[in-house]
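Retry 2 of 3 after timeout on previous attempt. Resubmitting structure tokens to design endpoint.
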């Protein structure tokens, strides 16, 4: 059996890539910048493929916010709701990930045997979710406080500056979980749940899209649990979880127990919409039978999988 063929004994690894790692702090998000930012994470994922079956999920905060702004700049065409824009980002980022990964595999001398698929993914949310009343998910570019105050939509202060916030209900279940599991068993590398998934509410047997953006960390944890992933890696634009983040005395942690994480969470160490959903995702995964979970930087996915970098979480 070749290294890139289905091998049920290889552990399943889910790598959740931050949308903010594709458009770095201070960048405007040109397509060249985004392709460049993907090189390093994809090189590492290519290097991990002989040993792991891999699912890639990704965020879309900057990208979906940019699409929203782009269409608001033009009054000639009808506005599209967020679930349509999320679907667009699954296509655009899935395409960028596939081509970059394919190039990296070629550079590693892979014989082109690895099968890929980018799957449009729906994620069910609850129509009564309080997230609909209280926009919390930062999207699009960062503004100065002054500019933000004059904008016709809600914004919130983040580590990047003031950003637009939109409704972000919690994911309940991944609609395509069985398909993803089957594809992994067949040896495909699967790119799924992009941008947290297309948010839908279940209407008896059909689904209806809703105007929101689900946090990709929470959807990734749901997918990891529902598919039975062994290792869950959340790759972002910082080396891991810090205490006193961006303040004097900032300290990055190498390990955290679920109980410690819960305590720091209560103490307000993790802001909503950025680090808090990552912590919640990891806790959800570990409390539902997940074996290993790490939060690391996109530069250190490989080392984090080996247990040499990032913040690793333990049940106790
Ligand atoms: P992603 O697109 O990867 O999900 P986010 O912006 O949502 O990125 O989350 C990562 C960000 O969380 C970091 O860039 C950092 O600014 C912020 N952050 C907030 N609190 C912490 C913390 N305690 N430790 C590390 N990073 C933190
Ligand atoms: Mg995020």
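Retry 2 succeeded. Sequence:
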């Amino acid at each position: 059996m070749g290294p890139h063929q289905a091998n049920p004994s290889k552990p399943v690894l889910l790598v959740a890539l931050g949308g903010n790692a594709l458009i770095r702090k201070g960048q405007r998000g040109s397509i060249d910048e985004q392709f460049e930012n993907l090189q390093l994470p994809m090189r590492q994922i290519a290097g991990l493929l002989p040993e792991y079956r891999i699912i890639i999920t990704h965020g879309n905060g900057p990208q979906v916010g940019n699409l929203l702004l782009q269409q608001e700049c033009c009054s000639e065409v009808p506005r599209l709701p967020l679930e349509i824009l999320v679907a667009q980002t699954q296509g655009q980022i899935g395409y960028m990930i596939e081509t970059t990964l394919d190039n990296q595999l070629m550079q590693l001398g892979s014989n082109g045997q690895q099968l890929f698929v980018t799957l449009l993914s729906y994620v069910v949310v609850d129509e009564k979710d309080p997230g609909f009343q209280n926009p919390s998910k930062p999207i699009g570019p960062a503004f100065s406080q002054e500019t933000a105050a004059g904008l016709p939509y809600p914004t919130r202060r983040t580590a990047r500056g003031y950003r637009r916030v939109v409704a972000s209900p919690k994911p309940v279940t991944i609609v395509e979980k069985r398909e993803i599991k089957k594809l992994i068993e067949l040896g495909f590398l699967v790119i799924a749940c992009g941008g947290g998934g297309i948010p839908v509410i279940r209407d008896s047997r059909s689904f209806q899209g809703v105007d929101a953006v689900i946090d990709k960390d929470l959807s990734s944890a749901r997918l990891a649990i529902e598919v039975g992933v062994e290792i869950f890696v959340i790759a972002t634009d910082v080396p891991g979880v810090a205490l006193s983040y961006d303040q004097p005395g900032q300290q990055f942690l190498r390990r955290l127990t679920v109980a410690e994480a819960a305590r720091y969470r209560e103490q307000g160490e993790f802001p909503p919409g950025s680090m808090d959903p990552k912590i919640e995702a990891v806790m959800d995964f570990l409390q539902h039978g997940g074996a290993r979970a790490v939060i690391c930087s996109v530069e250190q996915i490989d080392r984090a999988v080996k247990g040499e970098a990032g913040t690793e979480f333990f049940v106790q």
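Attempt log closed. Residues 194 and 227 are 16 Å apart (CA to CA).
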